[in-house]
Specification:
By secondary structure, the protein is mainly alpha-helical. Helices cover 57% and strands 9% of the residues. The chain has one domain: Winged helix-like DNA-binding domain superfamily/Winged helix DNA-binding domain (Arc Repressor Mutant, subunit A), CATH 1.10.10.
Length: 87
């Protein structure tokens, strides 16, 4: 399992807890938690901590992929260009 596997699993079920991602990858929770921590440190994912007593996995929180504004802008420009070319 590498970072790409973790990111793909997160894309498929985001937002998701560490347990959910580990289940999706059939991998040990502690291994997935380590990969997510490294991805968070690199700025690729972020975790929203659950408030104590909130639902399943309270305290763990849910992970999401961090959006890169430069990439979002590039996608928007590409979408506009394709729209103009189709006309």
């Amino acid at each position: 399992m590498d970072d790409a596997d973790v990111l793909e699993a997160l894309r498929e079920c985001a937002p998701a807890t560490t347990d959910r991602i580990a289940e999706r990858l059939s991998a040990p929770v502690d291994v997935v938690d380590d990969r997510l921590a490294a991805l968070e440190e690199d700025g690729h994912v972020e975790r929203e901590r659950a408030r104590e007593g909130e639902g399943e996995g309270a305290g763990d929180g849910e992970w999401t992929i961090v959006r890169d504004p430069r990439l979002e802008e590039s996608v928007d420009r590409m979408r506009d260009r394709l729209g103009r070319e189709r006309r």
